[in-house]
Amino acid sequence: MSTVTDNKPNEPVVPNKLPVSKPSKPWKATPKQLLPDILGALGAVIASLVVVAFSPMAGILGFILTFIVVSIVTAASISGIRQDRKAAANSVATIIIYFLSAFVLLPVVSIIFEIIRKGAPGLSIGIFFDDMSVTASDAPLSEGGLLHALVGSLYVVALATIVSIPIGILTALYLTEVKGKAAGTVRFFVQAMSGVPSIVAGLFIYAVWMISLGGTYTTIAGSLALAILMIPTVARTTEEVLKLIPTDLREAGLALGATQWKTVALVVIPAARSGLITAVILGTARVAGETAPLLLTIGGNDAMNWNPLSGNNSALPYYVWKNFGLGTETGADRAWTGIFVLMVVVMIFFSIARVLGRKKG
Amino acid sequence: MHDLPVSIVENSNRTEVPEPREITTEPRFSDRVFRAVVSSGGFISLVVLGLISLFLLYEGLSIFRSEGLSFITSFEWVAESIENGTEAYFGIGAMLYGTLVIGFIGLFFGFPLALGAALFLSYYAPEWLKKPMVLVVDIMAAIPSIVFGLWGYFVLMPQAEEWAKLINKYLGFIPIFSMPGDFYTRSPFIAGLVLAVMIIPIITSISREVFAQTPLDRIQAAYALGATRWSMIRAVVIPYGKGGVIGGAMLGLGRAIGETVAVYTVLNLVYDIRPEIFLSAGGSVASLIVNKFGEATPLELKALMAAGFVLFIVTLVINFLANAIIIRTVRKE
């Protein structure tokens, strides 16, 4: 529709009190033009209901399949008869695209619905104040909690953020401010790095930290693995943000005699501040739910571990994984509750990033 | 400059113009430091990628040496230690095949949905629906893979089994839909469906980005010539954005191939190549690593590193190709 909406009528200069008439939209379909579509849709629903009632197609699945077929046939015949074959093809394509989009929404709705349905019953204040150190794995959900996993997650993600912010921002600065000869190559590799499978990041840290350096499972090993996954997100989002800063600002800084370093530090970065925060939070949202690299690096723990530099630790995804792996009913319930908390955490990060990102425009 | 030039002292009527300051584009010292720091920071991602391949290759080298090509062609994965009387040998052939199978099943279902959603968002959606739907797709991208895994296991699997039985009932004569027993749980089909959902957001967002680059004048020209919306899409949008959309699909495939936790939750790993996609027997290199990692012998650990190296190289190549295609499409005049 972008073709027509651009023709906004020029704002007329009207004296204060005169009523301004609403701009008309001559391209909008009149009720009379919409009538065949509405009738067609109604007809399709009724026809599908009839077919499902009098045929072996049964249940919601049967109805959906019949409805799709009937809608396509109806749309094709209505526009085919009223106009021509091109119009029929157009109607069929429109219907198919509408259905495809609806099916894209379906899993998200289902996932969120199930998280709430299965995760919410296990929620209680207690789970945020207790760990699993003295609770049997088959104990009811009122005992024990996931405080250790929550704290572990915060540690892992915070440390990963600390590692990846400078690297991500330096990469973005190299791409936008220094614009070195290798900028194209670096951009290409950062792009490729965002496709590194998370399990490979975990294996790499295991190879470096445990095998080559002789370390043990620790929080910091987990956060290094997450940092590998976070750097590309931070770098690419930051690059987008820095590109939006007008060149005038940089030129003004340089024209006033500032060095490039001062221009970047005192003009460009402050101008992009909220965008930079968005970049960082998007990165944290990306890694907060990562499971695979943590399975190989933090070792898991049922008790609190306040020391990120030594000892096993847990994290929310790890907690979910472990309880799901038990294969018991309570295990599954705990896993869903863990997922509920994890999703809330991820969505909080996500919303903050979006709100800040919007302010930037 | 503080001392008066000699010439002025000698003859105060004639002032001599001081030497003009040399104008140079040489960066100052502080800028040289700045550029050096930023440049070295910019190369860290390259270094990290290099280190990943080096370390995994180094750890897995002995396995590559002893197994040779059979590491990626053979199906056997036996890690029994020598004291048990058997020799350990490792092959990820079945896992590689299984990875590709579930990746393509994911693409088969995910790609049309994602493309439809992208077309809908770019050319069909009314203004009021656009923002909420973009939000939903973004949320989809932010859902952690373990959530997809549990959803796939508890919610999707019971449904998908029914679908599989239905297809088997009517199309069971086709080898890939046949079923030798009654084992519909944890099949490549279900893993592929979960992957389809997971790769939709990436394909949708790349496709939308590409569609947004379609020249407006050509769209308007098509409409002005009387094209319907679908004719316009077929004549202008698809030819223009084809490459980018294919690149997006490849990025989705790359993500599907590297996916670990979600696949491991819904897939039964079997060290054999089976043609039936509804049978509870599949493979995935990434899941193999998680599966074997816990109780791996030192030698097996090396084999897992080698498997990780293969996985890394495969995804890297796919990503390189995809990004190259996307960049070419978007930059096209």
What does this structure look like?
The complex is a heterodimer of chains A (361) and B (333). Chain A has helices at 2-5, 31-53, 59-82, 85-119, 147-178, 183-193, 198-212, 219-244, 247-255, 260-271, 273-288, 292-297, 316-325, 329-360. Chain A has 361 residues and is mostly helical. In chain A, helix 2 (31-53) crosses helix 3 (59-82), helix 3 packs antiparallel against helix 4 and helix 7 crosses helix 8 (219-244). With 333 residues, chain B is mainly α. Chain B has helices at 6-10, 29-42, 44-67, 70-73, 93-124, 127-142, 145-171, 188-212, 216-224, 229-258, 261-266, 285-293, 298-331; strands at residues 77-78, 89-90. A two-stranded antiparallel ribbon of chain B has the order 1-2. The mean pLDDT of chain B is 87. Chains A and B meet through helix 4, helix 5, helix 6, helix 7 and helix 8 of A and helix 2, helix 3, helix 5, helix 6 and helix 7 of B.
Any key phrases for this structure?
heterodimer, A: 361 residues, mainly alpha, MetI-like fold, 0% strand, extended, disordered N terminus, B: 333 residues, two-stranded antiparallel sheet, 71% helix
